[in-house]
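Journal club side-thread
Mid-discussion, someone asked how the predicted structure for our own chain would compare to the paper's figures. Pasting it here so we can look after the session.
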Amino acid sequence: MKKWEIDLLGYLGGALLAICLLPQLYRTYKTRSAGDFSYIWNVLYMAGMIITIVYLIEVKALAGWISLVCEFAMALALFIMKAYLQFHTKKSEKQSKPSISVISDGDIELVKVIPNSPTKKRNI
């Protein structure tokens, strides 16, 4: 194979690997949930990419490290989204748990969901 053909394979393979995280990023953004993956996986994944990027720069494999930098950016975005969503989900869960009241009279049951509203403390 000629050098340009080998480089082309490197760029194509790198591009495919780089876009692998796009579906996960999109799903996390749309569902506002990042509980599907762990911090440990994300940190190990990014650490492995950093080491590999350094290696690819040292051996002058341009096609490899450019695509890996793009992949690292997406992994970092996923990590930030997970941290952001986890923080804001816990905060909003504490604030927005509705109270439920059930009234039963024989065969008929009435369920009423009352959203929490901020209550003011009253000094008596």
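Post-session note: The first helix runs from residue 3 to 18.
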